[in-house]
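Follow-up to my post from last week.
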Amino acid sequence: MAIPTLKNLIGGQWLESQASEFLEVKNPAFDETIALVPQSTPEEVNQVVAAAKAGFEKWRHTPAPVRAKAMFRFWEKLDKVQDEIVEIMVREHGKTRSDAKGEMTRAFEYVEYTCGIPELMKGTYSEDVGRRVESFTVREPLGPFVIIPPFNFPAMIALYFCWPLACGNPVIVKPSELCPQTMTRMAEIAQECPFPPGALNIIQGGPEVGHQLITHPDVVGVTFVGSSKVAEIVYQTATGRNKRAQCQGGAKNHLVINADSLLEKNMDNVVNSCYGNASQRCFAGSNLLVHEKVFDRFLSGFLEKALQFRLGYGLDPEATLGPVVSRKSLENLLGFIDRAEKAGARILLDGRHPSVPKYPQGYFLAPTLIEAEPDLEIFREEVFGPVRCIKKIRDLAEAVEIVNRSPFGHTAVIYTENGGQARDFVRYCNTGQIGINVGTPAPIAYYPVGGRKISFFGDLRGRANDAVDFHTDKKVVVCRWMTPFA
Amino acid sequence: MAIPTLKNLIGGQWLESQASEFLEVKNPAFDETIALVPQSTPEEVNQVVAAAKAGFEKWRHTPAPVRAKAMFRFWEKLDKVQDEIVEIMVREHGKTRSDAKGEMTRAFEYVEYTCGIPELMKGTYSEDVGRRVESFTVREPLGPFVIIPPFNFPAMIALYFCWPLACGNPVIVKPSELCPQTMTRMAEIAQECPFPPGALNIIQGGPEVGHQLITHPDVVGVTFVGSSKVAEIVYQTATGRNKRAQCQGGAKNHLVINADSLLEKNMDNVVNSCYGNASQRCFAGSNLLVHEKVFDRFLSGFLEKALQFRLGYGLDPEATLGPVVSRKSLENLLGFIDRAEKAGARILLDGRHPSVPKYPQGYFLAPTLIEAEPDLEIFREEVFGPVRCIKKIRDLAEAVEIVNRSPFGHTAVIYTENGGQARDFVRYCNTGQIGINVGTPAPIAYYPVGGRKISFFGDLRGRANDAVDFHTDKKVVVCRWMTPFA
Amino acid sequence: MAIPTLKNLIGGQWLESQASEFLEVKNPAFDETIALVPQSTPEEVNQVVAAAKAGFEKWRHTPAPVRAKAMFRFWEKLDKVQDEIVEIMVREHGKTRSDAKGEMTRAFEYVEYTCGIPELMKGTYSEDVGRRVESFTVREPLGPFVIIPPFNFPAMIALYFCWPLACGNPVIVKPSELCPQTMTRMAEIAQECPFPPGALNIIQGGPEVGHQLITHPDVVGVTFVGSSKVAEIVYQTATGRNKRAQCQGGAKNHLVINADSLLEKNMDNVVNSCYGNASQRCFAGSNLLVHEKVFDRFLSGFLEKALQFRLGYGLDPEATLGPVVSRKSLENLLGFIDRAEKAGARILLDGRHPSVPKYPQGYFLAPTLIEAEPDLEIFREEVFGPVRCIKKIRDLAEAVEIVNRSPFGHTAVIYTENGGQARDFVRYCNTGQIGINVGTPAPIAYYPVGGRKISFFGDLRGRANDAVDFHTDKKVVVCRWMTPFA
Amino acid sequence: MAIPTLKNLIGGQWLESQASEFLEVKNPAFDETIALVPQSTPEEVNQVVAAAKAGFEKWRHTPAPVRAKAMFRFWEKLDKVQDEIVEIMVREHGKTRSDAKGEMTRAFEYVEYTCGIPELMKGTYSEDVGRRVESFTVREPLGPFVIIPPFNFPAMIALYFCWPLACGNPVIVKPSELCPQTMTRMAEIAQECPFPPGALNIIQGGPEVGHQLITHPDVVGVTFVGSSKVAEIVYQTATGRNKRAQCQGGAKNHLVINADSLLEKNMDNVVNSCYGNASQRCFAGSNLLVHEKVFDRFLSGFLEKALQFRLGYGLDPEATLGPVVSRKSLENLLGFIDRAEKAGARILLDGRHPSVPKYPQGYFLAPTLIEAEPDLEIFREEVFGPVRCIKKIRDLAEAVEIVNRSPFGHTAVIYTENGGQARDFVRYCNTGQIGINVGTPAPIAYYPVGGRKISFFGDLRGRANDAVDFHTDKKVVVCRWMTPFA
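User reply:
Got it. Predicted complex:
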């Protein structure tokens, strides 16, 4: 079968790129090229922005209940192709079918949330703010918004586009060049709903395309999700052009195992948080902070579970853990482990170079656990793959101190049954999300998501009502009619 | 074809009633019996309440996002049978296909609104209402609610059940005995979504069944829509048993034609408000209050349009106006006209005993217009059929005075281009809804609906967020954990 | 000093009543008459309603920010006379100065909340609910509302009047005939703010006056707080006249002492919940449900604390527990104890006929504790004074079962440090409020208050945003202007 | 009298600056120096940030209702010194006493709005987002925020500090160096409330101090109000350090006089919008776009009113128009007029070098009106003083086109009685605020304020609920307790 080249969706048309450079999309379980992504040309980027700008006129004057109906139709059509999307995702990302299905479940809630757009777009109305003077707000869409999702949730985070779109803005998605097919297929589905030409656009390419988008004068704002380093650049670049920006960066999430926690009941949750989706998620548990009273018992339980993962191709029903997304990523991870080892950290579980006979070319790394201190690189830096740290702690105060010393501020988790300690953990951890006995406390679509410190740049968070605020402006009208009643 | 007898939906089962009495559902265009409605027995009413109560347990503990998914599924399945529902409705109600389709469009928005239930059920959370004391509200469903819809919108108003259901309550619908098949068919669709047994229930019958429901000790509350007389009885009966009640009554809506209004541009809207759906809707314009400066011009334009209606069977593509719902209603309407005539009112357009050759048995009344003064019965009382009044007015003050003298307080409409006069009309009319150049200002599902004076009994309005409040309680938790952080 | 006779505040004037009957206000620590309350005549009731109705016109058209300024002024002026109000309250009610001060602190939050009325009265606005059709809601006040507060919080609950008033309604307060001076004095303060004549009115009297108010055709709605028996009558009487009603009834609150609870840290809180304000509050703990594992330890700690109360006159700095409000109440309480004793309940602490040498005429009852089973009258019925029950329980399931078997549904409290058990207690107790380690979980003014079952009749709760909804209607405007832009 | 030198408020202490450079505060009616502003040293800026950071700990853990009480106290105390503040303002800014009083009225609403902080800080709570999983948001303050207000409303805009402060953040205000005494005096008042040390801080100085503040690593965010040029720099500088920023820039507001508008009734409003506060406000009307049908009549009425202004010192009861704020500003304005004249614009009213005998040294410029085309500098650029343009238009479409061609997007105003044209004006003008027969449509404090294009940089607007969002983060908690009920 010929390797397909992905197209751009510009103004309602699927157009072949005139690119001269192409990036390879690989199936990470086989190291096989399965698609080519054009590095779209500057002209094409201009074209897609122009198409979005042109599409604004019609879409912006489409009543919110009619926009909602298009979202409902998208929900219905996407539902019918769920299995197909899941398989596309597994092929280009490597995650297991079960992880991909779980992603789709959450992803649907994004569509579902934005189906409620007529309610969410309501402004407020006050009679008589002064005598015979009324005031009200009209929530208005603003123009072309850009979404730059990461590779790790090719369906879910790409669906962030539902927010600007439902709000009445045209939107341009630049899919991750590592896993672009999932979004591309979803855009085909969306075209059938239909959304008017120019409302939803896709432009393929790598960072250069992203940069051109966020510096383009006709782009109003950008939502980025990715590493802290790039998030910061995107935030500064976009706001440096006076645009709106909300940029989700990386994470280093601490899971605190309190002395009173129900170890056995929670162990699956802990292990899944650490290694699920091959640890490629910003809500993954990274550093385990375990109370000294239960450290040994916890560790033996954890290792037992961690050893049960079966590596393999995500569509293989036997596989419970897939490869990481790319060879580069695998090498990066091995480098982290090697440096930790050299720095004196104790490798409690070594997942390097696992034997995966059925998929010998795959980018596999088995679960790895390292006992490390907070000053080590492996403990401080984001490690996007199944390499986790563990550290013994004396009490909750020490745990919170470690959480707050991290440059990241995404998420912290406590395992405890004690209401008071959980309460104070919520209060004193300077992170954007907190889990209580929930290892990956990703808010549902109805709650906004965002970190602190280098995990998030911006003020309005992603998703939920914050994303409605981000993608609209509240025009204020002050009105006094002069002709009285009689 | 045998005449079908409608069944009850009790605890997830469609059960034949043991009734000894049956009511006839007629096709009003043919005076033909098309279905039989059992007057369900007291035992069956007890049974349906018991089933609802039993169903509460499971449904109440179903997470809101999961309940939302069932609502989405209902949306999808109902969408597929729209045409079928439309035809059922036309057959039992008599409205034209076009009116029925219009009703379905609005009806869908009810389902769409309640698909947003996870957002709508959010309570609030405050840390530190006092030092180390948190407070929050949990919105909880309450138990079996009853919906008693009227005949005139057999799909739309029956779908009020979406609110209690989406909120997590079991719901019992007693369809109108005149037009019960529409709701009954929609309940079949709902069963496939599926909702758990006992979540949605149907009990067939007339007022006796309604009375037993609203006096049953296990019923929490009732939403009624119908005449003011019955609405008042239902309100007093239900609240007399300490239940929640919101009861929508009748209407007598005034359309005010201001001297500056754009007569030609608005005439279709006015005429449709007066006679659309054979005037059987609570938002229909009833009394035309026309400024003396434009009275003659308005009247001739109105009569011209009103004469263009073609009476007939709603599924007949030529028909633009159907029969009224029942022979009894027709006779009632003729009585109104006769009494007005005797009282000296001037009949400007006489629709009595029209010739409708293809449907000689139908309950037809052609558009009728009567010039009448505010003290006449025909001007004061609700007339549920195509008999409308007109009156010349001197100015807006007189119009508002007439609006506010009515015992009803449902809706008032002004036709004008003048912002100030419209503003004051909004301010000074004591009605629950106001239209500005909109003859039937029925709020969309995202806005709450309710009248004043004898048009509404209760505090929380129907639909939108008010209906969420009506069908839930805001449990308040005050929480102080004693174990500190460290 | 002559005993003063209280006046009515009608349309901005303090008027002497023409009553022929007068009720005595007693200082319960001395059994002395300190004021006379006229049983206002039917003519005076008509007069006050007429004054309120007349006052509506001006107040309703006062912009919300201007109404807010009057509320701010009231805050300022009330603040200056806090000590005076506290002393009035102690004299007529009997509570200690410390309890009265605590009440004032909470009471101020009612005024503070309603100072935010411009924000709270906002309606919503949507452009393009259909093409070129806008929709918005205008929150409108409705007319005269009645407040009938109980005796037990003469300042705080009387200040419920802030809600209808701030919303733009005229309000009529009928103070408790047992403790009317507090509200009367506060109304004097309010007059200075000033509120326009007829905005705030006071009519003195007993139940007959209340009955006439809630049946008067010009009264729109009523907020009542008192016993379940009267609350039910008021609810049925008012709604039987098609009015709005929210009626807070009595309570029988269970405090559950879980096996893991921090007994010592919580004991003050438990004992204060049981006996503070001489147990005359609807949030008071009534029945102690104590886990068998800690029963003995809890009981001895509880008795030790309970014995430390020093009975006396509330303004006497030595007193930590005042008398009950009236001789009738005292006799009623003694009857409860006697019947419990006869029914075989074990009196663990007997507070009957305590020696209070300095105040021999006072209506004193010392803290009383009775071990009783759920079927006993003393365990089931509301007992409004310092007589509490205790019962040993096996587990939380038994406790919740007891809570839910009660005909009351006001409040349930759990003492525990366990997050999961607290969560399920919140979920499974069918009460309107829940405390976690908070014995009297009265929501602050920013949270709505209301019980279930016979503890509350209505749908919208008291205070907070619910009370704004209760005292306003959301008029919906649907607007389509016909003249386009150009 | 010695000229006072302003102090800094750092950590609760009023400290004399160690500055070596001082800026002069002038009374613009007399060209007299009335105070000296230290250009605070870099050490002092570090010190104030450190004090704010230190103050965060205590203030952040102060319950919101307690913070609200401090705001109420501030309201009360500020109310008592209103007249004093007004006079300080007139002396340093030049506006008339009447303008200053008007400013105070609006300014109080800022304090009033933020008194409602316990309501505004509420997060949301959802039970069962999944089975047995709860989710809620905690709104948290974030740390030191900076407010940099402009000179033109020395009280009102400085009071933006109420938002971060009420939210629980420490705040640092750098008053305008032209009019710093107003804010400085208000801070003295605030100290008495009291706010804890470090909660509210003042640092005096010019742009250098501002720059150091917004680049300081411990500052979380900045609210700036001033010219577009500086607003853009502040936005890019702050976001370039990953901070939050909302920066209000300049304006060039168009007032459109529609052919149907009630000229006489509106003329005072138009003229006041143009010249009130000596045109030094971002909501001032700048360019008059007058329909050709009414141009001549409008112009003669306008000129008649404009000539009635009496220039003078703001505390002089005869004065109705004060000087501009500085000599530099006056020269700048004269330059604008001269260049316009040279470019061929027609000066219809020439206010240059007016005779103001009592105040010969004042920076006076009388109302000036210039007929100009959109491409002229005087028509395009912000002119912060009483120099306005007028232009004849053919229709509303032309007016809207001119509005939208401007680089500014702050406000547009239409004078009309036509509901439809007003509606479309609202819809099609790309500005942040719209007035309908309101020349200076400044939203009240309860509505958010913000422009578009170069008039605003950021996403969340100033004031109202947007400012609460800006000054807080919505921490999301996902919670699953493991211990069940029984």
